[in-house]
Structures are given as C-alpha cells and as structure tokens.
C-alpha cells in the first residue's frame, strides 16, 4: 500500500530520529532528572539507554522487515489481527490529549524566556507552531528531514559550546558511588526520563518512506538513539556542574541560564531559539507520524475518503490537518484546566510504554533469531518500565480497555475473508 514518496536516506533518518528524541526533552528533562535524583542522574542515563537498546533493536528489525506507514499498528496487525491493530492505532492517537500539550508548553516557554510573553502571547505561539507544522507538511517527508538535520546540528553545537566554555571535561565529572544511590529516586527519574526515548514508535511510521528501508532504517534508528543519549547525558553533566536546577527555576530554563552565565545575556535569545526549534522538530515528527497512521488506517478501510487522499507532493495533508485540529483543542483544554507539565509527561509515557509492549509482543511472534530474542528482552523491560511509572499507567490501561470494548469487531472478519 504506499503511495507515499520514498526519498529518505541514512543522514536524513538520523536527523529525524535524533531530533525526535531530543526535541522537547533536551532542555527540560536533564534538569527534572537532576532535581529528582541529583548526581544519580548521571547513572540513570546509561541505565535508560541499556533498557531501551533491546527495544530499539526489535523496532529496527520490525521496520526493516515490515515497512509500512501504519507503524506500530501494522506490526500488531500482522501478529494479532486487525482488531488489536485498530486498538493500538487509536491508543497511539490517545497520546494527543496529554503528550502534545506538554510539548507545546515546553516550546512556548522558550518564547516566554526570550521575550517575556504573557499568557495570550504564549497561546499565539502554540497556534503559530501548529500552523508552521501544517505548512511544512504540505511538502514530502524529505523536506522535514532536511530541516531537522540542521536543527540536530544546532543542538549538538550548543552542547559542545557549553562544555568548551564551561571547562567541563570527562575527567572533571564526579560520578556518585553506586552504593550511595537510592532506588526510589532513580525509579522516579527513569519514569520521567523515558519521555526522552519516546519516538521510536513514531519513527516506525516513516519506514516506508526510506529509499532503502532494509538497510537505512535500522541504521538510522540505532545511530539516532545513541546520538540522542550522548547529548542527554552531556546536558545532565552540564546542569549538575552549574547546579542549574531545582528551586523556582523552570526546568526548560536550565540550559538557557547556563548559556547566559557563560556567554552573557545577549546569548539568551540564541539558546531559546535553538530550544524552540528542538521542540518544533519533535512536534513535527510526531504530528506527521500521527497523520500517517490516520491516513494508513483510513486508506485500508475507505481509500476514497477525504482523510485518505494525498497531496500533490504525496503527503497525507488532509490527515495532518485533522491531527493538528485535535492538537489545538487538546492544548486549549490543557491550558484551561492548568495541567502540570510533569503530570502530562508521565501520563503520556504510560501510553508510549504500553505501545512499546504491544510491539515487543508482536516482535516475539513475527521475528526470528537474535531479533526475536531482543523482543523477549524488550517485553520484560517494558513491563519493568510500566512498574516504574506506577499508578499513572492506569491512563494507558483504561484507554486500552475502553478501545478494546468500544471499537467494533465486525470489520475484522471482513478483512480476514478478503485476506
């Protein structure tokens, strides 16, 4: 099924995934992690990378062997049938009410730090951000990829500049003794930090748009994940070195405050622009992935429907417009109810881990050899992550149960007969 344009290469894929993972997290989560676990967060990042690595291997194998715009829902469909696939697709879309408002809050916060915008101005920034994503979505995925490669370069350059000007070296970093670490703060930090590694399932929706998905998709996924992990650890080391966290300081203001200390007040707007662009990159790939999921599922059921139509650049522009409208409504609701950022993040994480779990279970059935072994390990790690998130996983569990009961099953039989 893909009418989508196949034009992505390895470098573009690395840019897309690394900015997706860095995006909204790189400016806020290192400070949040340091606030929760203090210097123990230096150990938390390697632990998280180890936890996520088998999951990434399994996703890479699934995307390599079964490239499709449906992403996670397509993998689940092959393993467990159409009804479970529809549940997974809608479960992925259920992150919109909690995940995207959190991302827009972080993005608009940089405009507040740089220009002192008031509440109404911040809402206009959020609206403008969604409009910019719509304009970029009028073009193919390659255009988004080229933009995000540049943004990834800017993020890495800023972190390198902070280390260089601040005199931070690997030898100057003081790792806490493992015997002094407490499990409870580490678990709480990991529950928040996992936000930084959600994006693998979104990236899977773009597998069908690689020129050579069997070769370049898994490479881009693994390289992008390692690049993002290195940047996150480097940012955490800088935040700890300058003690730029906690108190009344907003988490997203942590790195900009370090930039001001090192380069002067005039450099604040540079840091804020890079921070906003990082958030924009993450929002862009997520909304584009949501649009591809909506398009693929609609195309399978009603190929002539308005949402299933592609633009002249062969991008799912109609589906993207629908997704962005939902984003706008959700963001306005989050603002009205004054929902806190860390709560939104953890609720969204529960959804993502649950989807990861379904994909790992799919890998256990679909893959072979070492990739299948990684899927089994990934399944166990996803269950562990759900335990770390705790009772807030109830949002994901309740959404899954409701979707399982509400979504009709009659189309499952019809699709089976066609197959």
Your description of this structure?
Helix content is 74%, strand content 0%. It is mostly helical and 419 residues long. It has helices spanning 10-22, 29-37, 41-65, 72-80, 82-93, 96-115, 119-137, 141-166, 183-193, 200-204, 213-241, 254-263, 268-301, 317-336, 341-366, 369-389, 394-406, 410-418.
Describe the structure in brief.
It holds the Pfam family AA_permease_2. By secondary structure, the protein is an all-alpha fold.
Strand/helix succession: HHHHHHHHHHHHHHHHHH
- What percent of residues adopt helix (DSSP H or I)? over 70%
- Number of beta-strand segments: 0
> So what's the overall shape?
globular
- Please state the oligomeric state of the protein chains shown: single chain
In this structure, how is the largest beta sheet organized?
A: none
User: Number of helix segments?
Assistant: 18
Structural class: mainly alpha
The portion of residues forming beta strands comes to: under 5%
C-alpha end-to-end distance: 14 Å
Average of per-residue pLDDT values: 85
List keywords for this structure.
single chain, 419 residues, 74% helix, disordered C terminus, mainly alpha
Topology summary:
Elements lengths: L9 H13 L6 H9 L3 H25 L6 H9 L1 H12 L2 H20 L3 H19 L3 H26 L16 H11 L6 H5 L8 H29 L12 H10 L4 H34 L15 H20 L4 H26 L2 H21 L4 H13 L3 H9 L1
Helix pairs in contact: 1-8, 1-11, 1-13, 2-9, 2-11, 3-9, 3-11, 3-15, 3-16, 4-5, 4-15, 5-13, 5-17, 6-7, 6-13, 6-14, 6-15, 7-13, 7-14, 8-11, 8-13, 9-16, 12-13, 13-14, 15-16, 15-17
């Amino acid at each position: 099924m893909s009418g989508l344009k196949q034009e992505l290469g390895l470098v573009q894929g690395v840019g897309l995934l690394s900015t997706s993972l860095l995006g909204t997290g790189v400016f806020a989560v290192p400070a949040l992690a340091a606030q929760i676990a203090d210097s123990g967060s230096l150990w938390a990042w390697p632990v998280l990378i180890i936890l996520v690595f088998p999951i990434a291997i399994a996703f890479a194998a699934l995307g390599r062997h079964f490239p499709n715009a449906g992403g996670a829902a397509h993998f689940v469909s092959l393993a467990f049938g159409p009804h479970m696939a529809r549940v997974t697709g809608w479960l992925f879309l259920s992150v919109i009410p909690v995940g995207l408002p959190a991302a827009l809050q972080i993005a608009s916060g940089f405009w507040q730090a740089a220009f002192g915008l008031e509440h109404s101005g911040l809402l206009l920034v959020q609206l403008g951000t969604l409009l910019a994503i719509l304009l970029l979505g009028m073009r193919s995925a390659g255009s988004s990829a080229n933009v995000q490669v540049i943004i990834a370069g800017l993020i890495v350059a800023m972190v390198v500049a902070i280390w260089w000007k601040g005199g931070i070296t690997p030898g100057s970093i003081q790792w806490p003794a493992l015997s002094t670490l407490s499990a409870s703060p580490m678990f709480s930090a990991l529950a928040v930090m996992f936000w930084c590694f959600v994006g693998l399932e979104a990236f899977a929706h773009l597998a069908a748009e690689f020129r050579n998905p069997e070769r370049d998709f898994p490479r881009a996924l693994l390289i992008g994940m390692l690049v993002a992990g290195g940047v996150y650890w480097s940012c955490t080391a800088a935040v700890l070195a300058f003690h730029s966290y906690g108190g009344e300081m907003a988490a997203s203001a942590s790195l900009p405050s370090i930039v001001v200390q090192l380069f002067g007040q005039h450099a604040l707007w540079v840091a804020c622009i890079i921070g906003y662009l990082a958030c924009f990159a993450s929002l862009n790939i997520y909304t584009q992935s949501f649009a591809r999921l909506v398009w693929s599922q609609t195309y399978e059921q009603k190929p002539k429907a308005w949402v299933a139509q592609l633009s002249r650049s062969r991008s799912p522009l109609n589906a993207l417009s629908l997704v962005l409208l939902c984003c706008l409504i959700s963001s306005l609701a989050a603002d009205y109810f004054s929902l806190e950022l860390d709560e939104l993040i953890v609720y969204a994480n529960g959804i993502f881990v649950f989807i990861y779990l379904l994909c790992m279970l799919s890998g256990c059935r679909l893959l072979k050899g070492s990739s299948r072994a990684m899927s089994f390990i990934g399944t166990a790690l996803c269950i562990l992550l759900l335990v770390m998130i705790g009772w807030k996983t109830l949002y994901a569990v309740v959404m899954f149960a409701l979707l399982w009961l509400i979504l009709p099953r009659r189309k499952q039989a019809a699709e089976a007969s066609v197959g």
